[in-house]
Amino acid sequence: MASDKDTLIEFGFPPVRIDKALKATQGKGLQAALDWLDSHQNDAGIDDPIEEAPAQTVDSTDTEEAPAASAPAQSLVCNECGKQFSSHDKASYHADFSESTEAVKPLTEEEKAARLAEIQDKIAAKRKAQADKDKEEQRRNEMIRRKAGQEEQDIREKLQTQEQLKAIAKQRQEKELDKLARQRVKEQIESDRKEREARRRRDSAQDAAKQQQQQKPSMLQAGVPKVAAGSQARLQIRPMSKGLGDIGHITHVFESSQTLADVTGVKHFKLAMTFPRKEFGEKHQTKTLAELGLAPSAALAMTE
Predict the structure, then answer these.
(1) CB-hemisphere CA count at 13 Å for 158?
(2) Sheet (strand 232-239) strand order
(3) Long-range own/partner contacts, residues 202-211 (CB < 8 A, 24 or more apart)
(4) Which of 99, 50, 45, 104 is nearest to 77 (CA)?
(5) For 190-224, how does the pLDDT look when each residue is reduced to its tens digit (9 = 90+)?
(6) Rounded distance, CA 238 to CA 299, Å?
(7) Any idea what DSSP says for residue 288?
(8) What does the alpha-carbon distance between residue 2 and residue 84 come to, in Å, rounded to a whole number?
(9) What is the separation, in whole angstroms, between the first and last Cα of the chain?
């Protein structure tokens, strides 16, 4: 005949749990072990190995024969409902119970099979409930993971957008600085060109004046003839510099006794005769128009 341990192994219980059940029920039978296994299947450490108690020295006095005791209790009976239990674990859900010397009737093969089926159904139901719980927990964790991943992706895209905007702003700034640099170079080239052109014209005018002086020495010796008081000088002035704007010809009548400073004003624009070629600068500002040969009329070019 198979032992209770063998039967429980055939039922599919782990050996560690079987050993704990048989030890806890103190060999009260298969039913007591099944009840214990059903009550303690969710205990923490149920599958941990059994710790063996250290050996104790037996005192010689303990070996003496103990006085006869009453028969040991074989079961527990609920005082309220009268139901019989094989162990204290099963009776713990009842408020009032007492010990009984009557042993619990062992299960028949059919009862064992039915009990096993019941235990297996309970185990399957609990496993399914745990599986459903784990699945729901996994679903919640996946939702949390996806949300965290989406937030991380949003932050990453935001940072990437900010970096792109910074790069665009930097490129725009570099293009603007490059444009300003090219403009300054262009302005410098234009300024140098104007300066060379003005120097060329000035040198050409000086050369023409020297040639004119060499050709007409008598005119330099004779000096500028004086004109009678009250005569006028009609001057036609043409701006020759872009900085003066397009204001066309200026024609004005001055007294021949007025000075060149009266014509140019405070800014003292430069004036020059085209023929015969002659320029009027700062040294001519205090001379009269008659002394400069600009009366009774003259055509002048004005520059800054």
Answers:
(1) 6
(2) 250-255, 232-239, 297-303, 270-274, 277-280
(3) 205/272, 205/277, 205/279, 208/277, 209/277, 209/278, 209/279
(4) 99
(5) 998 899 999 999 988 888 888 777 765 544 444 44
(6) 8
(7) B
(8) 26
(9) 133
Q: At what angle do helices 30-40 and 109-215 cross, to 10 degrees?
A: 20
The C-alpha atoms of residue 228 and residue 224 are separated, in whole angstroms, by 13
The C-alpha atoms of residue 51 and residue 156 are separated, in whole angstroms, by 55
47 vs 18: CA distance, rounded Å: 10
Residue 272 near residue 300 (C-beta atoms within 8 A): yes
Taken in order 92, 94, 97, 99, the sign of the CA dihedral is: negative
Q: Average pLDDT for residues 250-267, to the nearest whole number? A: 83
**Which residue is associated with the tokens 């040294």?**
283
Q: Domain locations in the chain?
A: 229-303
| pLDDT (0 to 100) of residue 140 | 93
Residue where the block lists tokens 């214990």: 36
- pTM for the predicted model, two decimal places: 0.29
Task: For domain 229-303, give its CATH number from 1.10.3720.10, 3.30.160.100, 2.60.40.10, 3.10.20.90.
Answer: 3.10.20.90
